[in-house]
Structures are given as structure tokens and as C-alpha cells.
Amino acid sequence: MSTATLLRIALLIALVVAFALWNPAFISGRNIYALTQSFALLGLVALGLSLTMIAGEFDLSVGSMVAVGGLLTLVAGGSNLVHGMGVALAFAVVIGAANAFVVNRFNVSSLVVTVGSMMALSGFAFWLAGGKVISTDNFDLGFALDNPILTVLSWRGAITLAAFLLAGLFMRHTLMGRDIRVIGSKRLVAAASGAKVGLSLYIVFIVSALCAALAGSLLSMSLASAAATTGNNLMLQAVSAAIVGGVALSGGAGSPLHVLIGSLILTVMNNGLSLMGMGATGILFANGLVLMGIVLLDGQLGAWMSERFAASRARHSA
Amino acid sequence: MAALEMKSVGAALLSPERVQSTAVWIGTILLAIWASAAVPGFASSANISAIMYSTSAVGIAAVGMAFITLSGNLFMLSMGATAAVSTIVFASFLHLGLLPSIVVVVLVGALFGLAQGIAVGVFKTNPIITTIAMASIITGAGSFYSGGLTIVGQGDASWLGIGRTAGIPNQIVLFLLAALVFSFIVERTRFGRELRLIGLNPKAAHFTGLRVGRTLVIAYVLAAAAAAFAGALYGSQAAQGNLKLGAGLDFDAIAAVLVGGVAIKGGQGRILDAAIGAVFLAIITNILLLKGLSLEIQLIVKGLVVIASVILGALALGGRK
């Protein structure tokens, strides 16, 4: 593990210790359960989004996809929510493939393409919801998903962890995983050296949409309800989680492990802030500040600081 | 080298880049003529004035957004948040009078733009993520300021809200004025020329000594000020402000810019293209409304129109792989 990764783990531990000292309720079993429940949602969305980022692309539509995934599960599922989840996931595959098709075939920036799909999906979500909160009286699946398995973890959290494990193995041990990383850093070199650029793009956009839809679907089962506005701030949090964890906005860098650490840092921060009595917009504000701080470090300012750091280290060692 | 570049700039003005915007100009006129004949109620004076009102704020935001797109930094995703917070600022300063209130709104918006311009232009941050982050900071700040409540304006905003000059809503007059002034800035000033050159080739712009940072800062300030002014228009119509008013402005402005034919790769397109894009979308939305289609369907249609115009733009440029 690199120094940067260890530093991030240290930051995570420091945050946990600080919040626990401030309010012992933070490390109560109940609160840790609440924490892993929010991680189950955010982590899954961040995982999918980060794969597109590692490939040097970006999927702005994940937030609306969460809403559509949740609504489709209830609306198309009716009394059979597993069936509804199947519909939601199949729909996500289609949307992910469509995003990848436009990006790959017409060579347009994925930011622009997914602005369009974000709008269209958001409209679709509002249409599905028909201006209401959709609910179901089928609670069994939700209870099963939220049932604690190790006191602090639900099945929903376990599914998210399993997704991280799968994605980690995929990125580390398959050729395709290597291709995705390479096309993120040097697209043209990658194509020339035989990396499957097109296929990689399809995989990352489909996985991104799938993760978002799965997160929304599981959430709607757990809450036994879904609304069109559910995913509103999730994209902001997911991109924060990914870059807090060390996924570069410029592509090529980062792994599911990084996203896992980043998601945990952000979940701990948001949970701690809400324990301190901060409201939803306050947390949104704090997330914005964090994200703003990281993009500044990601840009010129960070380059300048690491230059200074290297220079001062060179002086000291001389 | 420079001669070559000038030549390619000249060629670009006559080449496929203009096809889409010309098509949208013609399409808008044909659509209006067709709708007047075929859609009942479209040509009524009440409906035309409704179209004008729905064009104004979006149009002003769109010409602001066009600065960002022209500069090669894609979009400013904080415009909706800026407009929403501006409705609150507008309402809470209205007791000072309409003009002072507008001035405060535009200054606050310009400050938001300054922060983003410095981040993107000077510190070279990712423009999309920067403006997403700023959107939540702005929303959070607005929510602290208003306590999450709707603020009712104590004063008379009717000149801006419903006032007319020679029978034309003041809002549309202001939109046309903004489009012309912004267009002049881009076409005729050194700032505008630098903006377009930066959009065409940011690396070359840097090496040839263009004032890249300064130009981008100005672009963000102008764009955010435009978004804030659009917020004032929303606030004046309702004579109140809250975080929901104008929150969807980002999408509408992006749609207008892309449909109008401003190239997403930067450098190519005109401010007036974004303005006509806003008019085109307002007419389409109005027709969908008259046909009884809901707001949700309109959002879906807008999203699809964005993707379609992106594909068309890429095809016109030969962007196939």
C-alpha cells in the first residue's frame, strides 16, 4: 500500500476517534449500523462512478439513475420486488450501453453525453413517480435486507462490500481491468497497444449505471418507498468519495480499495456532522467545501505544493 | 504557424460548424409558423407572452453559459443554485427598491463567479467538478441565509416581473439586450477574441501569451452574473425567493447552448446561437404544454434533444471514430 493510501486510512481513523471523543454515541452499535447503512447506498454509487473516472470518463447520470432504479423496482415490481429489481437492472444495462455507445461511436465527451442522460432520466423518474412518493406494502424483502448480520452490518451493506470485493478482483487480476486503467491515462497509446478501448467503455458505463440502479433498488426495498428526488445529491457525494479516496479526475489512477476508503471517510464525516446536529443543507455545504478543497489540490495548487514539498525534502537531504 | 491558424479559423466560420446553428435559426422560424397554423391557442397573444416569459430567464442564463462553453470549459453546473439563491437575495433586498436589489443580486452572483473563475482559470481545477462543488456551497450558504424559508419581498418588483414597454414584456427586452451586449463582447472585444482562441486550443493560447487565467475569470464572473440576473427575473415574477425557484436553470441553459449549436469543444459558435437555442426550446416546450404533455415528459424531451444535438454536432464535425 502506498503512503498516500496509508495517510487516507489514518485520516479515516482520526475522524472516527475525533467524533467518538466528541460524542461517545458515535461508536455505539446502533450508530455504526446507521453508518454502514448510508455506506451501503453511497459506496455502491461511488464504486460504479469511479470506474468511469479510472477510465478517464465521467458519468453524471448516476444520481438520476439511483432514483429511476428505486422507482422502477416498486412500479414495475408490484408485489414481486425481485422482479422489479430485475427490470431496474436490465434498464440500467440499456442506459449504460447507450451512454457508452454515444461516447465511443461519436467520440464526444462523456460529461456532455451524461448531462443529457441525467436530464432524460430525471424526467423519467418524475414521470414514473407521477409527483408522489411511491410506496409498497411488501415489507418482507426490506426487513430481510436490513436485518443486521454482524450487529453493525446489514445484508444491504454486505452486498455493497461484496461489490467492492468483486470490482477489486476484476480491476487487479483481469486484463480488462488493466485495459480500463490504461485507457484512462493514455487513450491513444492504449488503443495503439491493443487495449480494447470500446469494450472497456461499454463495461465501465454499464457497471456505473448498474451500481447506481442496484443502490436505488435496494434502498427502495429497504424504505418500502421511492421518490424521484432520492439521488439528488448522491452524484456530488459519490465523486467526493472517489477523489477523497484517491481516484484522479484526470483518469488512470485509483482502485476500488481507494473508493472504499473514500466512501467510508465521507460516510463517517456526514454521519458525525449529523450527530453534531447539522441539517441536510449544512452537510451538503460541508461536502461542497471538501470537494472544492480536493479539486484545488487536484489542480495547479496541488502540483505547486507537491513541488515545494519535493524541493524542501531535497534541501533537507542534501 | 499563425497564418495557418488564422486560415483555419476563417475556414471554420464557413464550414460545417455553422450548419447546426443555421438549421436551428431556420427551424425556429418554421416551427413558429407551423405551430401558429396547426396548434390551437399557440398564436394567441396570451400564449405568445407566455413563451416570452419562459424564454427570458433561460435565455439570459444561456448566453451566460455560452461564455463557459466557448472557453472550452463545457458547462457551469452552479447556475441553477446561483439563480435559486439570487431569488432569495432579490426578495430580501427588495425593500431598498427594485434597482438596488438587482444590483446587489448581480454583485453577489459575480462574487460566486469570481470564486469559480479563480479556481478554474488560475488554479486549473476541473471545471465541471468545481461548479458542482460550488453549487452545493452556494445552496448551503443560501439556506443558512434564508433559514430554509421562503422570503417574501417587501417592495414593488412589478416593473421587472410583469411590466411592459410598448407592449413587449420588459423581461424579453432585457434578454434581447443581454444577448446583444454579450454578443458584442464576444465578437468585438479583445476579451472575446481571447476567449474563443482559448476555447479552440488552450495549450496554444497559453504559449502565445494570451491572458488565459484573467479571461476565464471574467467569463465565469459574467456567466454567474447572468445566472443571478435570471434569478432576479424569477424572483420578481413571484415577488418572493426560495431555493426551489430557478433550480433547474442549469439544464435549460445547457440545452439551449447545445441546441443552438455552440460547439462543446469550445471556440466555435456565437452568443446569438445560444439565444436562439433558448427561443427554440421555449417554443418546443410550449407546444408540448399546449398538447397536454406534462413537465416530466418535457424534461425527457429536453434530455433527448441535448443528446441528439450532441450527436448531430459530432457528425457535422466528422467526429466519428
Protein described:
The complex is a heterodimer of chains A (318) and B (321). Chain A is mainly alpha-helical and 318 residues long. Chain A is 78% helix and 1% strand. Chain A has 14 helices and 2 strands. A two-stranded antiparallel ribbon of chain A has the order 1-2. In chain A, helix 3 (62-77) packs parallel to helix 5 (110-129), helix 4 (81-106) runs antiparallel to helix 5 (110-129) and helix 4 packs antiparallel against helix 10 (197-223). The longest helix of chain A is centred in the middle third of the chain and has 27 residues, at 197-223. In chain A, 52% of the residues are buried. Chain B is built from 14 helices and 4 strands. Chain B is mostly helical and 321 residues long. In chain B, helix 8 crosses helix 9. Chain B has helices at residues 2-14, 17-38, 45-70, 79-93, 98-122, 127-146, 158-161, 170-188, 190-200, 202-207, 212-238, 249-260, 271-290, 295-316; strands at 151-152, 164-165, 168-169, 240-241. In chain B, strands 1-4 form a two-stranded antiparallel sheet. Chain B has a two-stranded antiparallel sheet with strand order 2-3. The two termini of chain B are 27 Å apart. At the A-B interface, helix 4, helix 5, helix 11 and helix 13 of A face helix 6, helix 12 and helix 14 of B.
